[in-house]
Amino acid sequence: MTTHTTALPGQPFFSSRGGELFVEELRLADLAREHGTPLFVYSKAAMLAALGAYQRGFAGRRARICYAMKANPSLAILQVFAQAGCGFDIVSGGELERVLAAGGRAADIIFSGVGKTRAEMRRALELGIGCFNVESEAELEVLSEVAVASGTTAPVSIRVNPDVDPKTHPYISTGLKGNKFGVAHGRALAAYRRAAALPGLKVVGIDCHIGSQITDAAPYLDAMERILDLVESVEAAGIALPHIDFGGGLGIDYQGVQPPAADALWRKLFDKLDARGFGDRQFLIEPGRSLVGNAGVCLTEVLYLKPGEQKNFCIVDVAMNDLPRPAMYQAWHAVVPVAAGGGPASTYDLVGPVCESGDWIARDRELAVRPGDLLAVMSAGAYCMSMASNYNSRGRAAEVLVEGDRAAVIRGRESIADQLRLERLLP
Ligand code: LLP
Question: Exposed site from 68, 150, 168, 424, fewest CB < 10 Å?
Answer without folding.
Answer: 424
